[in-house]
Amino acid sequence: MIEKLRKIILGKPLKTSDLHGEKLGILWGLPILSSDAISSVAYAGQEMLLVLIPMIGVAAYGKMSLLSGCIIGLLLVLMLSYRQTIDSYPNGGGAFMVSKENLGNTAGMVAGAALAADYILTVAVSVSSGVEQITSAFGGLQPYRVMIASALVILLMIGNLRGIRESSKVFGVPAYAFILGILILIIGGAIKLQNGYIPKEPNFEKPLGAISLLIMLKAFASGCTALTGVEAVSNAVPNFKDPSTKYAKTVLLILSMIILLLFGGTSVIANYYHVIPSEEGAMLILIAEEIFGHNFFFYYITTTTFVILILAANTAYTGFPMLIAVMAKEKYAPQQLSMRGDKLSYDNGILLLSAVSALLIIGFQANVTSLIGLYAVGVFISFTLSQSGMFIKWRRERSKNWHFKAAINGFGALLTATVVVIISIAKFEEGSWIILILIPILVFLQMKVYVHYVAVKEQLKIKGSEYETADLSKLEYHNKIIVPIESVNVASVRALRYAKTICEEVTAFTVVMSEEEGKIILEKYNKLNTDIPLVIKLSPYRKVVEPLIRFIESAEYDHTPGDMITVLLSSFVVRKWWHALLHGNTRKYIEKKLLKHKHIVVSNMPLQLKDDHYFQKHLASKR
Amino acid sequence: MIEKLRKIILGKPLKTSDLHGEKLGILWGLPILSSDAISSVAYAGQEMLLVLIPMIGVAAYGKMSLLSGCIIGLLLVLMLSYRQTIDSYPNGGGAFMVSKENLGNTAGMVAGAALAADYILTVAVSVSSGVEQITSAFGGLQPYRVMIASALVILLMIGNLRGIRESSKVFGVPAYAFILGILILIIGGAIKLQNGYIPKEPNFEKPLGAISLLIMLKAFASGCTALTGVEAVSNAVPNFKDPSTKYAKTVLLILSMIILLLFGGTSVIANYYHVIPSEEGAMLILIAEEIFGHNFFFYYITTTTFVILILAANTAYTGFPMLIAVMAKEKYAPQQLSMRGDKLSYDNGILLLSAVSALLIIGFQANVTSLIGLYAVGVFISFTLSQSGMFIKWRRERSKNWHFKAAINGFGALLTATVVVIISIAKFEEGSWIILILIPILVFLQMKVYVHYVAVKEQLKIKGSEYETADLSKLEYHNKIIVPIESVNVASVRALRYAKTICEEVTAFTVVMSEEEGKIILEKYNKLNTDIPLVIKLSPYRKVVEPLIRFIESAEYDHTPGDMITVLLSSFVVRKWWHALLHGNTRKYIEKKLLKHKHIVVSNMPLQLKDDHYFQKHLASKR
User: Fold this and answer.
1) What's the confidence (pLDDT) of residue B623?
2) DSSP string spanning A380-411?
3) Fewer CB atoms inside 10 A, N or C side of chain B?
């Protein structure tokens, strides 16, 4: 039943060979890898205003432009830094691998934890912001925003479980449409001003007073969310056509220019159109409303902004499961997370991402301003580690021009490290503390998981010289069989017969609650006319496993330590799932207990039962 | 860990031989078996007033006395009826067995379902009423009543899982204390009136108007809850000393007289002291307050009423699990419900009762008036079936005086059937519909369960003549072994060696996702220097079970249909519970799938892993 439902929702399975899709050029590589980065235009500027306006009123717009300038500077440094990463890691230089290789395992684990946290927040923030855009345009939807956001996460989850691929070209179109939309907004706004339009001046509530450094830093920290996603290109180098590094570097350059244009442009426009963003009105939508009224362009901008934000969330659906799978393959995460499902997607990773981001959305009521406090710390930690890793790499390799290259990455690392400190402090109360506590916990767990997997691997490994001694033909176990029976019935007779087949030394074993019960079972057993001895134990606690283990370990059971003992359980298999509820799980319980003991093999011999309806008549006959 | 917690909460296990407790005489039999019946004095009268007062104001008290008279009449008929049941069923004549024997399986199932529903309601109503008593005396506790009631259910659950026994004499004391308390209330009230005290007359809200028949019937239905529990004595005949039927009949007679006294007495007293019960004030407590003020007697009555109500709930903790266990033994309920736990209590039944009654308490906010709508229908259905069963029995047996005996039980059946109709109609909207829908559903489920168990039993049974053909020495299976291996490691080598021990025809089997992977594993395997063939299958869907089953069923695998095929799974057992989370459950999944196929035996050969800390050094060495 569940199997069927699964098929309907998720479609048919795919083969492993379907894995490799088309390679990307610039035309499609750019939009496909950029949605996370460019979509932040929808919230980064607005969140700066939301920090500044209550403090300094109308002066906020000027300060925002100033801070946007700083952030664009940071962007350019990052761009240069990451172009070098692309050159050095043509197979994809995610922060996790770069840090692990150059800075050691612990740095890798920190980067992994930081990135994981940020992918989750990318989903939560992007979806919440997407919903904010449409509820700004359609106010009636406001009360349902948590519901809409949760539904979108579920849709993303189902879509990704079905195996939609980010690399599909159809995902490139909305990025161009969004870029076009924002350009129309900027140009349209400029023309309107040119034509002598004087924007309405809103009533600012009395500002709280002068601006402090902390407030500026808080606004800056909010604005830094504009840079999340720029690392996507360097992770995806192998997805490009040859020469892949060249294409990737070009795409990164163009992407940076586009962010510069959109982020800078909207900052400038906001400086003229003094809209006051709030939970009910997203900045871009308010500006579009003032410039265009409710005409086609207004709805065009609303729609494309919404779509690009959802696509940004979707990039996390590719990035997060892949990151976690890489970590799992390196033994830092449960191996289930590295297994591909029917649709070649990392199903468990997708489910995990959906669950945690949906919880965040519900917990923070899909409020972008609340979520943004947690965001960006993780990204900048991973930036810092990745750039530091590159810096160390140059110093170690001492290749041509290494001083220059090291300087760029070193400067990048220093700058992003500073931003980490700024965000951590400025946004501490707003939520960065959660991430700062979470990362060490995740690192600790990764260590525990790593040690466990190594422990398992070491114990399973056959060391070189052991292959000789492992010679299977030479060594054989001495095996004896015990068949616990509940009563003398068809299933137990089958089990005894099978036991005889595979081994000479068979013992039947049963547990009874009273002497009489023992007599009855012995009488029946004797009718079987067999030479297999039956051991009957009184079990006042009505337990099976304990008396059985006591018997095996006792002198009464004639065996040498080191003998292999097979315990053969006869059971039956029912036809319907609810029938299983009617039978307890004694078999599983016994199996679980016995498997903990050395030198015990547990065999299950099932009897497949017929369907109940053959026996319906019994009900009628007794009624 | 869970095991330890279990021990602390539940104490040490008991032996089966501890099961039989002391036999009861009249002195202790009376109070122990009466708590359910006498405790209803705490709510039956009050609930009648709650129906009547809003309709007819002060006239309600007179009508309540009238209705109480009818109910006492009903009590006397029931008493006579059940004395005959005691004589006929010295081993305990529960409604389930009496109906099943005399009216057939379906009637038994209906009685079982009705009784089960009513036991659950006994817990919910008694606990809620108990909490109502103490929140009436200590108003500050009012907001916590749902929490207190739930906590009491949990305490009752733990107590019963620990194996407290209703038959313990200590449970007899509160019944006498309660009876004494109510007598003090009645006598104290009478004396106060004698001394010329004129009770305060409360301000009645304007009554809604004249009384209708439906309102009278509603009040009567509420009052009938006073009779729940009178069947307890006839169920418990074997618990009495010899001559047990004589003792039981005497106890039933005395019990009826006590109910008559307490229920009649409080009705009369309420007729003078016009208190208005409500959610905040239970009738008995309000009367006690007016008569005694806040002196010792007031707290004595509050306390004993509370205690007797909790004990009444506790009787359901003996009755319900025993009823369900009897039904399970007769194949009408899942057999897990008939298994005694460590403490010789029917743990599953206790858990089920606690869960459902806690849900009812929370759902109905521990409100007695709401819960009472569902109560009593079930009891009266079981009364009717039990009396009808007795009537049929007399007619069938035609023993001495059978006309007279049949007349008594027939009259009882007729009367209780009428009450069933009255309650069903009068309380339909208030909740009896829930029970009327629930009972057929439960009967349907019981039928399904019954047919399933019969189907299983029939298929397991060795018919007389088959014992000869079952001769174990004659027939042996032809057995072959397949050992699926994930890689060439210590666990798989052990498994292959064991396979060789028990069988000549061994095949190793592995699934790979690519040709290269296959080459690597084959190379390693060849180093083992074994003659066991290795079958390698490409599995693009990364599945194990399906290719394995396809292989077994294919011509490639040389075997005759009917051969037994053993699939030997090598697995490893981890030390800590959380380690299990790191390994998925491929083994269990494979086992489950394979066990559905005929002629397949699944064996598990575990490797017990060492603790991780032996391998901690690997983390350090790589950092």
Assistant:
1) 42
2) HHHHHHHHHHHHHHHHHH--TTHHHHHHHHHH
3) N
Measure the CA–CA gap between B139 and B116, rounded to whole angstroms. 34
CA distance A244 to A246: 5
- Beta bridge pairs of residue A507: A482
Using a CB-CB distance cutoff of 8 angstroms, which residues of chain B are in contact with residue A579? 452
Q: What are the Cα distances from residue A207, in Å, to A51, A80, A92, B447?
A: 12, 40, 48, 75
Kindly determine whether residue B452 and residue A491, on different chains, have CB atoms separated by under 8 Å.
no
Interface test with B, best of A541, A568, A571 (most B CBs within 10 A): A541
- Does the distance separating the beta carbons of A582 and B453 come in below 8 Å? yes
Give me the residue from A458, A540, A615 closest to B455, CB to CB. A615
For A332, which residue in chain B has the nearest alpha carbon? B582
Peptide bond into B533 cis (omega under 30): no
Distance of alpha carbon B265 from alpha carbon A490, whole angstroms: 64
Low-confidence ranges of chain A (pLDDT < 70): 1-22, 93, 164-168, 208, 341-344, 464-476, 541-542, 562, 584, 618-623
Tell me the Cα Rg of chain B.
Answer: 33
Q: Are B482 and B594 in contact (CB under 8 A)?
A: no
What is the 3-state composition of chain B as percent helix, strand, coil, each rounded to the nearest 5?
A: 70, 5, 25
Q: Closest CB to B498: pick one of A15, A450, A477.
A: A477
Total length of chain A: 623
Are residues B312 and B369 both part of a single domain? yes
Q: Which region, left, alpha or beta, applies to residue B260 given φ > 0 means left and ψ of -120 to 50 means alpha?
A: alpha
Hey, are the CB atoms on B498 and A618 less than 8 Å from each other? no
Q: Which residues of chain B have pLDDT under 70?
A: 1-22, 93, 164-168, 208, 341-344, 464-476, 541-542, 562, 584, 617-623
Of B454, B487, B514, the residue at which a domain comes to its end is B454
* B572–A460 CB contact, under 8 Å: yes
AA identity, residue B82:
Y
Domain that holds residue A175: 21-454
CA distance linking residue B5 with residue B539, whole number of Å:
45
Residue B518 lies in a domain: yes
Q: Quickly count: other Cβ atoms within 10 Å of residue A523's Cβ.
A: 10
Between strands B600-608 and A600-608, the pairing is antiparallel
For position B348, which CATH number holds? Answer: 1.20.1740.10
How close does chain B come to A73, measured CA to CA in Å? 35
State pLDDT tens for residues B60-79.
888 999 999 999 999 999 99
Q: Are residues B414 and B546 in the same domain?
A: no
Which residues in chain B have their CB less than 8 angstroms from residue A15's CB? Answer: 540-541
- Count of domains forming chain A: 2
- In a domain, residue A288? The reply is yes
Say yes or no: B381 and B497 in one domain.
Answer: no
Q: How far apart are CA B599 and CA A207, in angstroms?
A: 82
**Residue A271: predicted pLDDT:** 87
Whether B43 contacts B305, CB under 8 Å: no
From A454, A469, A496, give the residue that closes a domain: A454
Nearest chain A residue (CA) to B19: A540
Residue A34 lies in a domain: yes
In this structure, what CATH number is given to the domain that contains residue B612? 3.40.50
The pTM (predicted TM-score) of the whole model is: 0.71
Dihedral angle of Cα B7, B9, B12, B16, to the nearest 10 degrees = -110
Take residue B382 and report the two structure tokens written for it. 């079981």
Q: How big is chain B, counted in residues?
A: 623
- The answer to whether the CB atoms of B477 and A488 lie below 8 A apart is no
Same domain, A210 and A88: yes
Structural domain contains residue A593: yes
Q: CB of B599 within 8 Å of any CB in chain A?
A: no
Nearest residue to B125 (alpha-carbon basis) of B470, B376, B489, B478: B376
Q: Same domain, yes or no, for B427 and B520?
A: no
